[in-house]
Design a protein that fits this description.
By secondary structure, this protein is of the alpha+beta class. It is about 10% helix and about 30% strand. The strands form eight sheets. Strands 1, 2, 5, 6, 7, 8, 9, 10, 11 and 12 form a ten-stranded mixed sheet that branches. Strands 23-24-25 form a three-stranded antiparallel sheet. Strands 3-4 form a two-stranded antiparallel ribbon. Bound molecules: 2-acetamido-2-deoxy-beta-D-glucopyranose (NAG) (2 copies). It is found in: Secreted, Extracellular space, Extracellular matrix, Basement membrane.
Length: about 475
């Protein structure tokens, strides 16, 4: 038992030691650091659902002495009598050594024995990081029982550990098997170590979730074990009673001395908050939830808050709080989402949404299509003229060419671009903005080598049937230098 307690303590520390500083989600200089709720008995005062309990109607049971032929001391289990009931509330009440209370099943006389089984199910109401599950038996420990867990409330039951004097026969598991490095670390093992009929009362069985699992010493970097210790529900299935073999004679007194009785069902662990909260509280629907820090939210602090999507959500580790970071949207929006491609490309995954003031781009850093940045740094509409820009699509004050899809569309089109200084002087301000637009239809093949003269140009595309497109642009030398000859 001593060795066991020591292992428990070591493993408790692995999942995280409970020193005072650990409870704070920021350090002395206000930097985020890993934090976690205190270590508790998660089962305490939580009602266990038992599929069988003695006492309705009242029935007699006898205390096992281990000696045959001796007059047994017998008692009544009566569910309606507060002094004689043994309901499941006694599994998780205060465990008082001086005044033991226990849950008790019906006896073997009522058919309680393999292959009939009894389930004791504990709904924690929230995910916990489980360090151990401990049972204290009021009778002798069962010959075979198993512990199961659910990782999520709607998930499947998964075996945690088998205890059996007949591992192979009852559970098809190797007795005292172990897990080697590289093997599945989420497999349940079986042992016969705690399946002896003695002691006849007070025997403990404790299952430590991480013991014997190779990655336990690298817990922070083992998602497999992080999931393994996570549970929202714990179930104990009692499969076979231990007997002295004297039940074969069907003596009712003997059969009445075989039944399951458990005085304490404890689950050591912490409310699971992924290192982002130091306590769990009841929410408005009186459900237990983490009080999340580090810009996280959710029952388990399992996601980043809206607008904190600069990098993917991660658990906090001893070395890194992995807090969620805000998106940078230049003050143009309070909405963004995590964009994994953007994150791979730039190291920042926050993709802004619904950028205001005609801005666009992952960080609201540029103007919307058809808008350009004016000299007061605001995005203004291009107001491209339908004539000349063909379709109002893209404009940019820094692009110096004009194209029309009409040119590409009809083979007989002739196009020209010539200085239009005289004309431009005549256009009103609104139209002048429009002539700054160029449209970037990639299908138009014709580009003109333009002389590096700053000024207004007229672009004209004509077919045999007349003018197809007319546009104006203002060139700046640096813009024209990008125009490639064809
Ligand atoms: C046990 O739970 C009940 C309600 O579920 C609550 O009223 C009571 O205060 C709890 N007792 C302790 C000691 O926490
Ligand atoms: C008892 O638990 C086992 C294992 O989860 C399950 O297969 C079985 O259906 C349960 N029985 C009852 C009566 O709930």
């Amino acid at each position: 038992m001593h060795r066991f307690i020591r292992v428990l303590t070591t493993l408790t520390c692995l999942v995280a030691c409970s020193n005072g500083a650990m409870d704070e989600c920021t350090d002395d200089s206000n930097r985020p650091q890993r934090c976690m709720p205190e270590f508790v008995n998660a089962a305490f005062n939580v009602t266990v659902v038992a599929t069988n309990t003695c006492g309705s109607p009242p029935e007699e049971y006898c205390v096992q002495t281990g000696v045959t032929g001796v007059t047994k001391s017998c008692h009544i289990c009566d569910a309606r009598d507060p002094r004689q009931h043994h309901s499941a509330v006694y599994l998780t009440d205060y465990n008082n050594q001086a005044d033991t209370t226990w849950w008790q099943s019906q006896t073997m006389l009522a058919g309680i024995q393999y292959p009939n089984s009894i389930n004791l199910t504990l709904h924690l109401g929230k995910s916990f990081d489980i360090t151990y599950v401990r049972l204290k038996f009021h009778t002798s420990r069962p010959e075979s029982f198993a512990i199961y867990k659910r990782t999520r409330e709607d998930g499947p039951w998964q075996p945690y550990q088998y205890y059996s004097g007949s591992c192979d026969k009852t559970y098809q598991k190797q007795n005292r098997g172990f897990i080697r490095t590289g093997e599945d670390e989420q497999q349940a093992l079986c042992t016969d170590e705690f399946s002896d009929i003695s002691p006849l009362t007070g025997g403990n069985v404790a299952f430590s979730t991480l013991e014997g699992r190779p990655s336990a010493y690298n817990f922070d970097s083992s998602p497999v074990l992080q999931e393994w210790v996570t549970a929202t529900d714990i179930r104990v299935t009692l499969n076979r009673l231990n007997t002295f073999g004297d039940e074969v004679f069907n003596d009712p007194k003997v059969l009445k001395s075989y039944y399951y009785a458990i005085s304490d069902f404890a689950v050591g662990g912490r409310c699971k908050c992924n290192g982002h909260a130091s306590d769990c509280v009841k929410n408005s629907q009186s459900r237990l939830v983490c009080r999340c820090k580090h810009n996280t939210e959710g029952d388990d602090c399992g996601v980043c808050k809206p607008f904190y999507n600069d990098r993917p959500w991660r658990r906090a580790t001893a070395l890194n709080a992995n807090e969620c970071l805000p998106c940078s949207c230049n003050g143009k929006t309070s909405e963004c989402y995590f964009d994994s491609e953007l994150y791979r490309a730039t190291g920042h995954g926050g993709h802004c949404r619904n950028c205001a003031d005609n801005t666009d781009g992952p960080n609201c850093e540029r103007c919307l299509d058809n808008y350009y940045r004016d000299n007061t740094n605001r995005c203004q509409p291009c107001s491209c003229s339908p004539v000349g820009s063909v379709s109002a699509s893209v404009c940019s004050a820094s692009r110096g060419w004009w194209e029309t899809s009409a040119i590409a569309a009809s083979p007989d089109t002739t196009a020209s671009l010539k200085p239009a200084a005289g004309r431009v002087l005549a256009v009103p301000l609104a139209a002048r903005r429009s002539v700054m637009c160029s449209q970037g239809a990639a299908s138009a093949r014709t580009t003109w080598r333009a002389s590096a003269v700053t000024g207004w140009y007229e672009g004209r595309a004509e077919t045999a049937h007349g003018l197809k497109s007319l546009g104006y642009l203002h060139s700046r030398p640096e813009a024209f230098s990008h125009v490639a000859p064809t």
